[in-house]
Amino acid sequence: MADRIDPSLEVEGLAFAYPDGRQALFGVDLVVEKGERIALLGPNGAGKTTLVLHLNGIHSAGAGRVRVAGLPVTKDNLQEIRRRVGIVFQDPDDQLFMPTVAEDVAFGPANLGLKGQELKNRVAEALTAVKMQDFADRAPHHLSFGQRRRVAVATVLAMHPEILVLDEPSSNLDPASRRELADILLSLDVTLLMVTHDLPYALELCPRSVLLDDGVVVADAPTAQLLLDADLMRRHRLELPYGFDPSVALR
Question: What are the ABC transporter domain coordinates in residue numbering (predicted)?
């Protein structure tokens, strides 16, 4: 009998209220299998960011539980959880603060104790994955916005995460940079959870989408099926770009 492989993510009955009493999540359930690519959709204020910040212990559940690859997200496990769940924030400048690209990518693994050739190999591997290996010695602030976002992805990949979480990865990218990043993300062997308002990007990258609104999961379905539900989209304030037809994904 084969050993059971734990899902990359299990969220069960997750509820959370902010200190001012505002309830942000109301019993969220979500299972993400290893290697899945899932888009987390919803209008502003739906609870998407609040949910994501539970995945690496920035927020602590008021009720329910979160497990990453079978490991509970608890205070005792935070160091390992934060290695396993890598979050790429919307603004890459929130993650890039070292003098060179290589030093930024090395920062996390070095804090885990990697050094010498092993650390150099980890940095080279991560930069190659995002096609930024020729920029290792450059200062991040000399790069284009799209290049900085790819380096931000590399800083997370260097930690060998179980889950790569991306917050609005396509925002502020020109069409060429948007395409380059999509190709990179599709090539990665990692579980991916993408928070986005870019519905065509969600359709291209994520076979499955989860729609969150008012702190609850209101839909969990194949992305094309969800985007073709005009009534669902309207009720939850989601809107496709003019002329975009999600049914092309079904042909």
Answer: 9-239
